[in-house]
């Protein structure tokens, strides 16, 4: 695979043998941090950016982590907010790591020296319905970005009740407040790792993609990042009444009052297991926890916020062709019946809506559609685009989801487009305006050459669906 020079042009790869592992030390404003170098890729994992949200800090706004007084060992993934996966089997491998310091981030960076210009930065937000997910997933390994001259940062944030409960005396959107503080940490420290704090792209998939759009629409997000990419995101927000109803039922099961003190008296793992039990009783319907509109972070609905904020931030936006409709029978002569599927109402419809909200944005919006159908899952389903964008087709779990021979040339194309976007290049296809017939980059459309510069029309444009919770 090729890399890119500072202008985004291809270079031959020149890397040291991958089997060599060494310690590597960085002295940052946060303190001395010791990571590992493998070949030309440096990894610094599990770095706390905030104090552990335990004791009095549980259900409180995140507090910036103090400077390390001793060298910090960043050789392994940090604790995850997820204690219990939502499902026994998930498309994305989502390991749970025990520990209290769940507000941590990982950095995968190229080798750097004092004589070269700093690298652009990609900050990745994982999905999981705002209830689960893990930044320690091997599908989020940033080695291909580091290989291609991009510093990749993966962020952990509070989930479920601890991150998104609507409770009296608790700041709303705690998980979003975590992400904002992580972006501040990146601004303050990423230069020590070779990154450019003036070229930060925030990106995420599913709930992470929705968080990106929320950050873009929030007045609090201003100045913390410079480009944005939302994969299978949406403008979803929790309904306050539904959230309180769910929390009431959850508290009854836990045997506590539905208050900050009540939930604080139960372990995170206990609460997450009870959430799963309630989900199973409801026939897999997910609880109404997630982004909340009406506080200082999201004072207005996300779609409305996008008309007012983030207009200087270029946005790459898209969805998979089938999301949660992974069945070959939905494909008829390469077309789909608009508006009849979960895919359309939850995900694809959000793309033209967002583009329309940003029609006056000088920075531009570009749409894509990931169309390659997994032979295992029966379509271009939710999450299968991640190992293509990260170019990690050899990662654990990819074969189980994509079959034994996922197309490497498609990974090269999708990953290259994202790298170029992060580097500051404008995508090669037309900007979107939210109107019928907007151009979109199509990745892996059946019958098209995988390496072709395929530009099609984004379909469908369907009515907005209100009151729908994020699904993954």
From TrEMBL:
- Which controlled-vocabulary keywords does the entry list? Hydrolase
InterPro entries registered for this protein in UniProt? AB_hydrolase_fold (IPR029058), CarbesteraseB (IPR002018), Carboxylesterase_B_AS (IPR019826)
Against PROSITE patterns, the record matches this protein to: CARBOXYLESTERASE_B_1
Q: What is its EC number?
A: 3.1.1.-
Q: Which Pfam families match?
A: COesterase
**Coiled-coil region(s) at which residues?**
none
Where the record annotates domain Carboxylesterase type B, the positions are 25-328
Family recorded in the similarity comment: Belongs to the type-B carboxylesterase/lipase family.
Q: What is this protein called?
A: Carboxylic ester hydrolase
> What organism does this protein naturally occur in?
Streptomyces umbrinus
């Amino acid at each position: 695979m090729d890399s890119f020079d500072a202008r985004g042009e291809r270079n031959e790869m020149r890397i040291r043998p991958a089997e060599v592992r060494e310690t590597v030390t960085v002295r940052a404003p946060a303190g001395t941090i010791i990571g590992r170098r493998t070949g030309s890729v440096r990894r610094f994992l599990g770095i706390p950016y905030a104090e552990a949200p335990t004791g009095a800090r549980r259900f409180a706004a995140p507090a910036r982590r103090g400077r390390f007084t001793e060298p910090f060992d960043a050789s392994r993934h940090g604790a995850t907010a997820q204690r219990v996966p939502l499902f026994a089997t998930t498309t994305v491998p989502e390991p749970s790591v025990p520990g209290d310091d769940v507000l941590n981030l990982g950095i995968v960076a190229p080798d750097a020296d004092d004589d070269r210009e700093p690298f652009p930065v990609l900050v990745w937000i994982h999905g999981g319905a705002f209830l689960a997910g893990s930044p320690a997933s091997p599908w989020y390994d940033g080695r291909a970005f580091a290989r291609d001259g991009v510093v990749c940062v993966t962020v952990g944030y509070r989930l479920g009740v601890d991150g998104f409960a609507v409770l009296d005396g608790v700041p709303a959107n705690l998980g979003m407040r975590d992400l904002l503080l992580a972006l501040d940490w990146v601004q303050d420290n990423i230069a020590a790792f070779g990154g450019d704090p003036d070229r930060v792209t925030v990106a995420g998939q599913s709930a992470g993609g929705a968080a990106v759009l929320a950050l873009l629409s929030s007045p609090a997000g201003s100045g913390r990042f410079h480009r944005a990419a939302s994969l299978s995101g949406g403008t979803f927000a929790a309904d306050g009444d539904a959230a309180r109803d769910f929390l009431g039922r959850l508290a009854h099961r836990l045997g506590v009052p539905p208050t900050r003190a009540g939930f604080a008296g139960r372990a995170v793992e206990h609460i997450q297991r009870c959430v799963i039990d309630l989900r199973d009783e409801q026939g897999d319907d997910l609880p109404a926890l997630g982004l909340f509109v009406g506080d200082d972070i999201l004072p207005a609905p996300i779609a409305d916020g996008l008309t007012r904020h983030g207009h200087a931030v270029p946005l790459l936006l898209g969805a998979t062709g089938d999301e949660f409709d992974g069945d070959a029978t939905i494909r008829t002569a390469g077309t789909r019946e608009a508006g009849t599927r979960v895919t359309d109402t939850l995900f694809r419809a959000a793309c033209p809506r967002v583009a329309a909200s940003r029609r006056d944005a000088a920075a531009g919006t570009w749409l894509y559609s990931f169309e390659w159908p997994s032979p295992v899952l029966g379509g271009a389903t939710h999450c299968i685009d991640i190992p293509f964008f990260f170019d990690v087709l050899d990662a654990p779990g990819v074969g189980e989801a994509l079959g034994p021979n996922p197309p490497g040339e498609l990974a090269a194309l999708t990953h290259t487009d994202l790298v170029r976007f992060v580097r500051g290049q404008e995508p090669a296809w037309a900007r979107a305006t939210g109107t019928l017939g907007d151009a979109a980059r199509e990745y892996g459309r059946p019958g098209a050459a995988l390496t072709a510069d395929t530009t099609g029309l984004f379909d469908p444009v369907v009515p907005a669906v209100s009151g729908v919770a994020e699904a993954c």
